[in-house]
Every structure is written in C-alpha cells, then in structure tokens.
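Hey, I'm writing a tutorial for new members on how sequence and structure tokens pair up, and I'd like a real worked example in the thread rather than a made-up one. If someone can provide the structure for the chain below, I'll link this post from the tutorial.
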Amino acid sequence: MSVNTDTAWPDTPSATAAAASSGHDHSGQSSSSSSSSSTDMSQMMHSTFFTSTTTPLYSTAWTPGSTGSYAGSCFFLIVLAIVFRALFAFKHVLERRWLDQRLNRRYVVVAGRPTEAQRISEDADAEAESKATLLVSPNGVEEHVRVVRRHARPVLPWSLRVDLPRAALLTVLIGIGYLLMLAVMTYNVGYFLSILAGVFIGEVAFGRYGNVDIH
C-alpha cells in the first residue's frame, strides 16, 4: 500500500501579492535606472546651445554642483583662453628672436674710410644725420666698423636648441586648443562666452607682440 506524500499547496492571496509586488519593484528599478541613464546622456550630448549650471566639464567628476562652482569653471576657461593667446604671442617673440640670432648684425671693418668721429668733427652738418646711423656700443662709438645686415629670411637649419623648444611649445598650444574646443562642444552658453572673453582679454594684453618687428 503506497501513500502519496506530495501535497499541493494552493496559492494564497498573500503569496500572489508578494510576487506581484516583487515584480513591480524590479520593473520600477529598471525603468528608473534607464530614465536616469537617458537623462545623463541627454545632459552629456547636445546639438544646440543651452543654459545650465550643472554641465560637466571634461569629465563627470568635474560637474558643478552650485552656481559658485559653475562660476569657478567659467573663470578657469577664461584664464585658459588668456594663457592660450599669451603662449601664441610668446611663440611669435621666440621665433623672431631665434631668427635675429641667426641673422644677427655683422660688423665689417671698412678700409680707407674716415671714422664716424672724424666725419662729425669735420662736418658740423653731419652731426644731426649721424644720430640715426651711429653704432653705439659699451665702448662708445665704433669708429672702424660698418653695420651689415642680411634682409633675406631663408629657412633656418635644424637646431636642437631651437627646434626642441618650438616643438614643446606647439604641443602645449595644441593641447590647450583642444581643451578649449571640448569646452565649446558642451554647447553650454556660459562656457562658450567665457572662452570668448578670455580670447578677447588675451588679445588686448598680448596681441601687440604679434605685430611688432623686434630687432
């Protein structure tokens, strides 16, 4: 005689409610996480300019949490743009200095010609003219030389002392330029206007160094 030990327990209302509640919680968590992820992605990717004080800059760790931190991020971009323009002016000054060192003044002794001091002493009218052409050195008027300068600007030969600093400076400039570009690509109006303000201030402060012929 065999006894059936398998007992079928009927579904109770409490068990059914617990299972439904568990499924609802899982679906709610999934929907909330997906909506949060979509919100984060919408904050990270924009195709039009917008105004927000919580836009991440360069990474999610750099996300302004208040108006003050957002203003600090804008100030950083202003300073970065000023430094970018200042480095361009500095590079221009270095280029001109390196060129002048290569095409430096050469002093050639002129035989059979009176010295400048003799010419001035013999001709009083030549004094005013000589003020613009005299060569003055720590020893006074150089009397037996004439200034000779090349005006051609050939391609300079490769030099480690010149080309290595030039390459390093250009690398820094390109890096800063890409950082500014990434800040603009956030499409945040405040970041964009901060970069424009920095470029403007930098041009006012350092623009003249790119237009002056340095001798």
